[in-house]
């Protein structure tokens, strides 16, 4: 039976049928794994932001030639070096995909409604933010001032 309210106990099934805990040792290892995945999520988010900054700086240093925009204003051309398609942009997209997958897995783990799993993930996210992302406020440029974008 799946719980629909928070509960505290050592018996939990997490994400997969084979990931079941029935002892305090297996439960502690599961909580440690949740904590580490949450830390890793924050680390990957920091890497993604840094790739994004590198990509933006790379684009500013190599503006696309103005003749391409004048010749075909309605057609999108694939710019060469320094345009939208550079290695930093691809790295940002790959890290975004990995980070999204980890984030959804953490969300599904919290949806097990086990209090220990919830606390382990929230602590992992908070400590990961403290370790990896506390200085990001100065580095990240905001493309859109709208909070919902």
TrEMBL record:
<keyword id="KW-0187">Copper transport</keyword>
<dbReference type="GO" id="GO:0005886">
    <property type="term" value="C:plasma membrane"/>
</dbReference>
<dbReference type="GO" id="GO:0005375">
    <property type="term" value="F:copper ion transmembrane transporter activity"/>
</dbReference>
<keyword id="KW-1133">Transmembrane helix</keyword>
<keyword id="KW-0406">Ion transport</keyword>
<keyword id="KW-0812">Transmembrane</keyword>
<feature type="transmembrane region" description="Helical">
    <location>
        <begin position="113"/>
        <end position="132"/>
    </location>
</feature>
<keyword id="KW-0472">Membrane</keyword>
<protein>
    <recommendedName>
        <fullName>Copper transport protein</fullName>
    </recommendedName>
</protein>
<dbReference type="InterPro" id="IPR007274">
    <property type="entry name" value="Cop_transporter"/>
</dbReference>
<feature type="transmembrane region" description="Helical">
    <location>
        <begin position="90"/>
        <end position="107"/>
    </location>
</feature>
<comment type="similarity">
    <text>Belongs to the copper transporter (Ctr) (TC 1.A.56) family. SLC31A subfamily.</text>
</comment>
<keyword id="KW-0186">Copper</keyword>
<feature type="transmembrane region" description="Helical">
    <location>
        <begin position="24"/>
        <end position="44"/>
    </location>
</feature>
<keyword id="KW-0813">Transport</keyword>
<dbReference type="Pfam" id="PF04145">
    <property type="entry name" value="Ctr"/>
</dbReference>
């Amino acid at each position: 039976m799946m719980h629909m309210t928070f509960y505290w106990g050592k018996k939990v099934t997490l994400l997969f049928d084979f990931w079941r805990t029935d002892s305090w040792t297996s439960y502690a290892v599961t909580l440690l794994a949740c904590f580490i995945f949450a830390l890793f999520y924050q680390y990957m988010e920091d890497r993604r932001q840094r790739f994004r900054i590198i990509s933006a700086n790379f684009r500013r240093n190599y503006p696309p030639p103005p003749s391409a925009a004048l010749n075909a204003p309605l057609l999108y051309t694939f710019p060469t070096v320094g345009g939208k398609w550079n290695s930093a942009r691809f790295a940002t997209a790959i890290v975004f995909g990995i980070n999204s997958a980890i984030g959804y897995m953490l969300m599904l783990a919290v949806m097990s409604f086990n209090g220990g799993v919830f606390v382990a993930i929230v602590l992992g996210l908070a400590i990961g933010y403290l370790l990896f992302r506390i200085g990001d406020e100065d580095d990240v440029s905001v493309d859109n001032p709208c909070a919902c974008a």
